[in-house]
What we know:
alpha/beta; Rossmann fold; 5-stranded parallel β-sheet; 6 helices; 44% helix; globular; binds adenosine-5'-diphosphate
Amino acid sequence: xxxAVYPGSFDPVTFGHLDIIRRSSKTVDELVVxxxxxxxxxxxxxxxxxxxxxxxxxxxxxNVKVMPFEGLLVEFAKSLNAQMVIRGLRAITDFEYxxxxxxxxxxxxxDVETVFLTTSLKxxxxxxxxxxxxxxFGGDISQFVPEYVADKIQEKMEKKECKS
Length: 164
Ligand code: ADP
């Protein structure tokens, strides 16, 4: 059984992430989307909220699971008996960091292979950060994220406005 982990912050999940999930889930028996609980960053959504959103928008994929994790990715992969890590590559700017991560992870766990999927052209510009920026200025994000996620972002932005 081939199990892969697709790790990330997913703060929030975009159509770019979903494209990688859809395509990679076709090539493995089980895909675990690992949602990183990173104390070093202050996310817009809590890890529980990010997991919930991912659950909702990946419902249609039978072999996709969503789980939170913290700490080393290779330890998470090993705990699941996953043989593969999936990452998406958008542009050359992603490459340097991704190569470094993949090589470090290979040193730490030689049995876990990192596999890169290049982004679909139509999502190559898309990142969670830009979605949040557009939303913060009241822009239309419907072409970047599923409706369910857009509604959750809207709710967050309204709460933030109330606080300030
Ligand atoms: P990180 O938290 O590591 O910056 P993200 O949570 O934003 O990463 O994304 C997780 C993974 O999804 C990364 O491999 C990233 O390159 C990939 N990814 C993000 N956006 C896109 C996109 N638009 N197209 C393809 N891959 C993407």
